[in-house]
Amino acid sequence: MTDSQDNTRSDALAWVAGSDAPEKPVVNLGFMALTDAASVIVAATQDFARPYGLTLNLQRQSSWSGLRDKLVDGQLDAAHALYGLIYATHLGIGGRAPTDMAVLMGLAQNGQSLNLSTELRRSGVVDAATLRARVANGEPLTLAQTFPTGTHALWLYYWLAAHGIHPLQDVRTVVVPPAQMVDHLRAGRIDGFCAGEPWGAQAIAEGTGFTLATTQSIWPDHPEKVLGCTRAFVEQYPNAARALVMAILEASRFIAASEENRRSTAQLISGHDYVGAPLAAVEARFLGNYEDGLGNAWRDPHALRFFADGQVNMPYHSDGLWFMTQFRRWGLLRDDPDYLAVASRIQQSALYREAATVLGIEVPASVMRRSTLMDGSVWDGSAPGAYARSFALHALTDPTPTPAL
């Protein structure tokens, strides 16, 4: 890879011995075998952390539930994590007692996909209409996602519901670790899956599946993975937390700086110790070049991205709020939480601002952002309770329909 030291601050070594020196110089950093772990992998392996007095002990995990448990139990200090995993853990959803959690920064936007089996394609299911017709005929379908409160579950639910398919009633959903999705599809244990790359691309390469939809078609530039940790880690080691954000911000900026950097990053992360997938499966969608297995190819304007001048990395409060609205929509929360209070506690926007400012990275003026999703609903972080109730398909126990926002 290109020498990472060309991209670090010339005075960065001041962080090693000064008053801002990390209280914990070795950070155990978890990740899953996914393309969107790239900035974490690059930061740990290409010396982006050393100038800030950190050593990153990179540890690949085999499941999101295992990663969560190690974060909560202190075996991992921080991790490449699902947005919804951090929020669910904080709220006590999913079988563990509530634990105060923190989102230090965003790691990635876009870049996930909903994929179906080649067998379904052969039977005539090639788009939303034919899938809906198949479901309406009462033929059982099993679709996999990676974690019950994770982004992939919520993208899958949102896409199905937008096309008139109730995700909790009309299909069966199961949890499968991302790296096992293609194996399960090949074996016929599932009919499709929603997961991060490179597993959608790999299913096409093997001839076992095709891509029905990308998640960026659901929400262009949607929030995806985050750098997550417990709030206790931030409170006990604030300098280490800030230095960690700075190192990964530097790595994110490096990846985005040129196509050459993106290609070298794809080659690095495809290795056995990281994603462990063929370079061809990793690189194309990493660069934004898509094929769907149905004969269509395109350059995606909202492909996986890691930096975008810092727009990816800001821990927007509105992003965290959105995940809570979907927890509420699908019955994972029986009552409305104090949405704003929860997001304000989890999202470490002040710490992020400090780190980004030192690196000369522009910080958005607001912790809220506005987006329009595939069904025309507008999300800007306002009225989260009403937004959760605005959908025709839901699993609310106390539905009070309101006009779509």
UniProtKB/TrEMBL annotation:
SUPFAM superfamilies: Periplasmic binding protein-like II. Keywords: Cell inner membrane, Cell membrane, Membrane, Signal, Transport. It comes from the Bacteria. The keyword Cell inner membrane applies. CDD domains: PBP2_NrtA_CpmA_like. It is found in: Endomembrane system. GO terms for cellular component: endomembrane system. InterPro entries: NrtA/CpmA_ABC-bd_dom. The keyword Membrane applies. This is Nitrate ABC transporter substrate-binding protein. It comes from Stutzerimonas nosocomialis.
